[in-house]
Amino acid sequence: MKTLLKKCVAFSLLGASLISNSLQAQDNPIVIGHAIDLSGPNSSLGRDYVAGITTYFDSLNRSGGINGRRVKYLVRDDQGSPQQSVKAVNELLEKDKAEYLLGGVGAGVTDAVVNSPRFTQSNITLFAPLVGSAKNYGNRVLFWRPTPEQEMQYIFSYFDKLGIKQVGIALQNNNINHDMYQYVVSEVKRRNMVLSGVAKISDTPADMTREATALAKATPNIVITVADTVATGLFLKEFRKHAPRTFVAGMSTINLDTLAEIAGPTSLEWTVFSQVVPNPQGKKSVIQIDHSNMMKKFRDEDISSLTFEGFMVAKTLGKAIQMSKSGRDGLQTIASQRTPIDLGGVILTPAENSFHLSSYVDVALFRKGGGLLF
């Protein structure tokens, strides 16, 4: 009888301990903060990106979280404003005690956050901003996506194989685009191509018409845009009046929905965009299938390259946190190990002396009538 009583007491204590540990895990979540554009000029990019991230963390929490701790993913809308982004990040760090921070859309908000006093004082690495800038932030920013130079190299290689030699550039002339413009010019020379001309994108309609018309008359085989979404759309709208079947190529940070609104859907024909993830509709890898299934289960909305990128970014961060020994060094650990990271058929291969985890690049063409063809 005494033995039976001892066993009952032991089981009761064990059960109480398990319940206590479970409650403690719930009360001690891993707080991940994210300031990103959800209602501003790049809101469609931000919303898709967040949808993919949220979906992965929802599925992760459903299966027990990370090391017994659930993920608390907090998103703040910075409206694409650098000032709002800094304010949101300050709140996430001060009020919400975020342990990890995900980055927003564009170099402007990234610069503002990285240079803000509160972020500078923190020991946190900004992870996976959607930035098409060639700027290097050192170990304060860890990019998930490849460098913009890698994207541009792939675009050049793709059209080089087609024998295209006449290249035009549509340039939004500002400090952010200066380095990439110089890179494109040097790449044209290196590949023995010919620079047909440069159209400087202006907010003035008359200037934009003149620049686009002049570049069309120079008859390039392809025009590479070094510009943001709005500037690319304004150029494309004018350029297509004179060159409806000239290839125009842009990078993966171009907001295709906004581009179609500005330039018109028919202007998207003969346009090509670099992509930093495989076809989100594909079924060739485990993570493609998981992403599709989990989006249907938790979101019930359309999938895109950005939802897929967000899903993989969240999975990468989850792996980094799992590897963390002190609670906040997971990203530094995953960046410094320089070994392949398998996300389920998509392999990240961090390069030496690089703050970019992925080197995957592909291109997608717009079909007639809309939709990307990978």
Automatic annotation (TrEMBL):
Residues 29-335 form the Leucine-binding protein domain. The keyword Kinase does not apply. Residues 1-25 form the signal peptide. It holds the Pfam family Peripla_BP_6. Keywords: Signal. It comes from the Bacteria. InterPro entries: Leu-bd, Peripla_BP_I. Belongs to the leucine-binding protein family. This is ABC transporter substrate-binding protein. It comes from Undibacterium rugosum.
